[in-house]
Design brief:
The chain is 18% helix and 35% strand. The chain contains 6 helices and 11 strands. The chain has 274 residues and is of the alpha+beta class. It is globular.
């Protein structure tokens, strides 16, 4: 897969990134109007995948033209459309791709919660004194299917579990039910359900072969493709309730995506690209 590159020259930085260091741990944050909304990634590479809600933001950050601009998302929109949609993002280089997959609503701590199952199986509870998984603290969505992928190169290759999720800015339980039902009806009338997001790809490998709590777990690493919704919350919820596909135009921020290599990034994104 060839990754398209997009230079966001008119970005206003309403949605931006922040690097933070605390003791021996360091994290990144996604900010909206300067407020820390999502915390993700301990880029030491060996401490388990983290992605959690760190705050809330009540106002829409998307342009009211988003539905019209996104259209059916049969392909990556024109550069002019990308510039319009990306105005809320900070300036810089992104990989814009259209991904498509089924949407599954997830409650934290449920049997399908990635952070409470797979992450704990590979890394155990981190730090060990924790009594509960370091979860997202908010409902979210799993996107598409999981994949097995060989990561690294040469004698350093190993099997990694690749998972994609969608993180909403707004609590799904507080969405307008009339709008969710409207989009369900629209989809049944043949309209694709679309959304707009910013995304990162995280990759972690335990430092110790037996670090995790499940010795039978078959993966040596985990890769998480996280899409933070900026527009399309009602459409994504509609897709989850219908058990159907949604298409998302997502802007991948490579500089904040600690994968092993450019080829690894291409393979991961290629699994979900439309």
């Amino acid at each position: 897969m060839d990754l398209p590159t997009f230079e966001n020259i008119n970005g206003e930085g309403i949605v931006s990134f922040l690097f933070s260091w605390a003791d021996v741990r360091w994290y990144h944050y996604i900010l909206v109007n300067g407020e820390q909304i999502f915390e993700f990634c301990n880029p030491c590479g060996t401490c388990g995948i983290v992605f959690r809600k760190a705050g809330s933001y009540e106002n829409r950050v998307s342009d009211p033209e988003a539905v019209q601009l996104l259209g059916d998302l049969n392909q990556v929109p024109s550069d002019q459309t990308l510039q319009r949609l990306a105005r809320i993002l900070e300036p810089g280089t992104y990989h814009p791709i259209v991904i498509e997959g089924t949407i599954q609503y997830i409650e934290p701590g449920s049997p399908n919660d990635y952070f409470a199952t797979d992450v704990v199986q590979l890394f155990g509870l981190e730090p060990p004194e924790n009594k509960e998984p370091y979860g997202p603290w908010t409902p979210y969505y799993r996107f598409g299917s999981e994949n097995d992928e060989l990561m690294g190169s040469g004698k350093y290759t190993y099997m990694s579990l690749v998972t994609a999720i969608v993180m909403p800015l707004h609590d799904p339980s507080r969405l307008n039910r009339e709008r969710v039902e409207y989009w369900k009806q629209q989809h049944e009338n043949g309209i694709p359900l679309t959304a707009f997001a910013i995304s990162v790809v995280d990759h972690q490998v335990p430092e110790d072969e037996i670090f995790g709590s499940d010795p039978n777990y078959k993966y040596r690493g985990q890769t998480l493709f996280t899409n933070c919704l900026l527009d399309g919350h009602h459409r994504i919820q509609a897709a989850a309730e219908l058990g159907t596909n949604a298409r998302i135009l997502t802007f991948v921020k490579k500089i904040y995506s600690p994968v092993q290599s450019e080829d690894d990034l291409k393979r991961v994104l290629g699994m979900y690209a439309r």
